[in-house]
Amino acid sequence: MKILYGMQRPDEGEIRVEGTPVGFRTPADAIAAGIGMVHQHFMLADNLTVLENVVLGSEPRRGGLALDFAAARKKIKEISDAYGLGVRPDVPVEDLGVGDRQRVEILKVLYRGARILILDEPTAVLVPHEVEELFDNLRGLVREGLTILFISHKLDEVLRVADEITVIRRGTTVATVGPKDVTSRKLAELMVGSELPSPETRESTVTDVVALSVRDLTVRTGDGRPVVENVSFDIHKGEVLGIAGVEGNGQAELVEAIMGMRPCEVGALTLGGADISHWSTLKRRAGGIGYIPEDRHRHGLLLESPLWENRILGHQTRRPNVKGPWIDRSGARADTRRIVEEYDVRTPGIDVDAATLSGGNQQKLIVGREMSGDPVLLIASHPTRGVDIGAQAAIWDHLRTARAAGLAVLLISADLDELIGLSDTLKVILRGRIVADVDPANATPEQLGSAMTGAGEGV
Amino acid sequence: MNGFVDRLLGRVRLGGWLGVAAPVIAVVFAVLITSGVLLVAGKDPIEAFTTLADYGTQPRSMAMILNTGVMYYISALAVAVGFRMNLFNIGVDGQYRLAAVVAAAVGGAAVVPGVLNIVLVVVSAVVVGALWAAIAGLLRVYRGVSEVISTIMLNAIATGLGAWLVSEHFGVLTGNDLGTRPIPDDAHMPGIPLIAGTPVLVNGFIVVAVLLGIAYWLVLNRTRFGFELRATGKSETAAVASGVSVKKMIVVTMVMSGAVAGLIGMPELLGASYKYSNNFPAGLGFTGIAIALLGRNNPVGMAVGALLWSFLENSSNQLQLLDISKEIVQIMQGVIVLSVIIAYELVHRYRIVAEQRRVSRELAAPAEPPKAEAAV
Q1: Which residues pair with A383 in a beta bridge?
Q2: What domains can be seen in chain A, in order of their start residue?
């Protein structure tokens, strides 16, 4: 997608537009070739009017300097009427709703003469009736002879709007099918692949003691749209609770709410019997929540600090890192050496910057850190993402060992094999809601995939 | 880009001799550029630099360099506190001037005698500086106003407020000079005869400056608070995930920076002028920014930077004897700051590459460690 829009250059292969091979260096080249992109996140200046936003960057001139707003207004009107977009040119963008803004984005692209439109997850921000309107608009555009590339992970929508569907998994084209030839279940299978999980034979270590209990957790975005809605679950000591879901369905927000990093409405959030709903992140951490973040570079590490300082991060209130208000250098350093040893972090020493380690070794350091200090609950977000196979196996082993010792784990992952293999209980999240409970003992990635994409009829 | 700003503000370590190499290279480079400018102007650069060096090594000038350097150093510390966590307190200038006005008035009123008065003056300066900086901190936290903008504007307000306070409330006219009532003799900071061979005393606040430097290092590098401050500066997202309250840190850091800024005017007020008038030194806050950059927020580096700056400022007048414009020193200062930034960047890139190489070399050397691959 980035390549098609000229934001990134391909290593090999070629792009043809209407039969002619093209090479894009910048988005401007792509626009010149008639390719326009509607981004998932709107790129509009709120305090300018629709008209000003549309012409921004390609303003019609009159007499060299003056802006020819009259001509622009006329052209916008024409485009809007031709495709039935119903855009009012003189309203400030800040007064528009999300659906209107999206139409402005589309109009912006059309104004620049695009004949091929790329829409990146266009429905992610829309409510159902806005989706309907968008689809009507899109059909209008297609009728007028435009080409639309509609990128989405919502299968029902793809099936409804597309004339042809191409499934991409891990960067390669898996299949190209017609919407009439497939069911959403079949499509889900294509999306997640059908590799079987490595069989896991092991006895359950789940106890009756509830470690974390979440009741009616709701997280809203700034504009009041719920991204997590009425989520409730219990995690027992010795249990791994897996959350499956296509990314962007509220998992990140759920984790941040439990960590206290994001404001949320909650019925009750209890950790080991204590009500923690009003605790700060620091208090929750000190209360025994370990956290392996989804994005280790942003949330888990100080990349340009030595390993031993990274050992302190997030554990700066506890031994062996501090004595009262003072940092305990020798204590922290000794414990960092222990982690490096026990978790097999490949590093020449504990004084090198975290940035110099490979992803797998960084992750092992984080896992070691978060397992220190006897956590009650571990939140593991994509714990093996972007790490090599060896580190992956090691991290899984550490999770299993800790679980056997009574640790409660909330596992969030996009790797279905990992979820099925490690979890004692599996829940599926879709659009911020828990939509299904799956028994990992007899679940297949296909079943899980259908539930995740909303294609399943209840698993 | 973000990484570059991190390095600019010295939140990234430069190991060992490399950290020293960069400023030395920069100063040498600045000397070369300045020589070029002098040559173009038809002057002899060697003669100019010899004059500067001769002047700087005389006992009397050394004492004067130390005295100005003390103020520069405190100013650099005030700026550096903010820099360490990504806060640009451009308002150090307004903070210290407003603090000096109020402190001078408090001291002039002589409510308490002697040493107690010194303490009172210093405390009121610290409080005023801290409160003035707190405005910017609170605006940032509650209204999202960039502290760069708010502190710049607060500088202008502080100038006006200070002038109004002096002219309408605290001012007494001595000859042509409108200033605050002088602080009584018993509340003067005694000087120290530190440099032999000159009657010029070194300002007693040099002790305070050294203690401040040590405290700065201890708090930032050895305490939990300092760790959280540095962590926030390096990665706000990681700090949030680690339970650091970024809002609280912003306000506390601004207040600390302002409190230190309040002390900048004290050597002058309690050790030289004893009152606040139109002659009170202005612009020290901006000098502090340059020195903090030069010294990479390192307490020793900033001390060296402050002395270098003070030496250049004090000896610039000597150049006029050679018929060289004293502004040549400003060119030199500008080039030093610019080239030091470039030199740090180059050294940093070199270090990253070198460390990456070292890590892979040391990991490759003992072939696979005997532990083999973790059991699957």
Answers
A1: none
A2: 15-151 (3.40.50.300), 210-452 (3.40.50.300)
